[in-house]
Amino acid sequence: MMTRLRKVFTLLLALLVTTGYAQKLKVTGFKADMNDPAATQFAVKDINEKNCALIIVNLAAADATFEGNIVKQERKANGEYWVYITEGSMDIQINAKNYLSEEVVFEKINSDILSVNSGTTYHMVVELPNLAKMPTGTVVIRSNLRDVDIYVDGQKLSSVAPFAYKGPEGQHQVVMKAPGYNDEHATVNVRLNRKEETRIDLKAAGSLSVEGVSYEMVRIAQGSFLMGSKENTKYSTMNTEQPTHMVSLRGYMIGKTEVDQRLWQKVMGSNPSIHRGEDLPVENVTWNDCQEFIRRLNQMTGKQYRLPTEAEWEMAACAGQNDQGDRYGTDRKPDDAGHNGTATVAVGAAQKPNPLGLLFMNGNVAEWCQDWFAMYTNESATNPAGPEKGFERIVRGGAFNESEWYLRNAHRGHMNPDNASGSVGLRLAHDL
Question: Using one digit for the tens of pLDDT, what is the confidence trace for 223-279?
């Protein structure tokens, strides 16, 4: 009874698949080629030390596999698969993603070939059904990058995002690749006659993971911007934000978020923060504490993280644009800055990122920078790192408990490197 039920179930399943969305592969040619020495020139032996037959399969599928008396199979360039099979074999099975498996009986394709011979090269041509005739759905793949190579089921289909993938119903494997970024792997689900969207963002190659705790970096392209403030207000009696001056920077990476307490705890084994929560920014840390954290982090990861320079911080906050010093990010109003007046919030909880994808450059906690404090000059600068000596280190970005004025991109705070505050934390940087 159970055997009969299994057979019925198998038949129904096969009928469902056949009348559904997958189609069969089609073998259009199979012949022996006595003038092709590949089977002996690149011989593979079976367990009896006898040369295998070699079937060179021409099949434009990136993930085909073969079953039967197979000794070895390998994918070559230009859609070729080399399949080494034992002498006397009479059939093989071909499998390819999104298609029904095809069992190939050699004699049915070529009546002159009942079975394959040792040391002989055979050529087989397999055609894929026209996907355009198959029921399909569409998934629009978006990303944080425009220039990105998009692979679906092992085949490169686009070099630009967004990309609309139209394919058969079911799950498909997507890989996104771009220079300087980690590859991102994802599974997308195509639904019949539906158009849906998914987003796959790439992380800069400097992004890290320490025992399951991750921290994402964002690449900042080299460029120039006008650093400082143009405004004169009642706060300008001794304005440390002027004069404005052009700054040029090499490319670098900066943290997408402030360092949270989870990562600090993992590296340092303790948590000095006043406002406690794993996903809240670490605070109440001195500049010197940050240097020790970075030293240990670099030892654990083999990387060379550091604090951003003041110029790097402001360029990232301004998204590399000019005349943004008196804004909050690139906005005229501080609606998305973190200044609730009572406490910090999770580092990833900003209402929206700035145009570079960075969160809480303005507010939540102010952030230590690498530089000693010094007054500006009107001279242009290239990759400035501040003076060699000083008394106080730069603090940027303003905090949750400060007025809006202190949250502007150009505002410059400064503190003794031995002092700590419950409203000051850090963000990491890294050279490209």
Answer: 999 999 887 655 544 588 899 999 999 999 999 999 999 999 999 999 999 999 999
In terms of Cα–Cα distance, which of 125, 122, 126 is closest to 55?
122
Of the candidates 96, 117, 95, the one whose C-alpha atom is nearest the C-alpha of residue 106 is: 117
> What is the C-alpha separation between 110 and 293, in angstroms, rounded?
71
Contact 131, 168 (CB under 8 A): yes
Q: Is the dihedral of CA 415, 418, 419, 422 positive or negative?
A: positive
168 φψ region: left (φ > 0), alpha (ψ -120 to 50), beta (else) = beta
- Helices and strands counted in the chain (H then E): 6, 29
334 pLDDT higher than 70: no
- Cβ proximity of 224 and 322 under 8 Å: no
Q: Are 198 and 186 in contact (CB under 8 A)?
A: yes
Which of 225, 282, 275 has the alpha carbon at shortest distance from 249? 225
Q: Are 378 and 209 in contact (CB under 8 A)?
A: no
Predicted confidence (pLDDT) per residue in 106-138, tens digit: 999 999 999 999 999 999 999 887 655 667 899
pTM over 0.85: no
User: Listing from the earlier edge strand, what are the strands of the sheet with 195-199?
Assistant: 163-168, 136-142, 195-199
Q: Within 10 Å of residue 428's Cβ, how many Cβ atoms?
A: 26
pLDDT recorded at residue 403: 85
pLDDT tier, 14 (very low <50, low <70, confident <90, very high otherwise): very low
Q: How far apart are CA 1 and CA 3, in angstroms?
A: 5
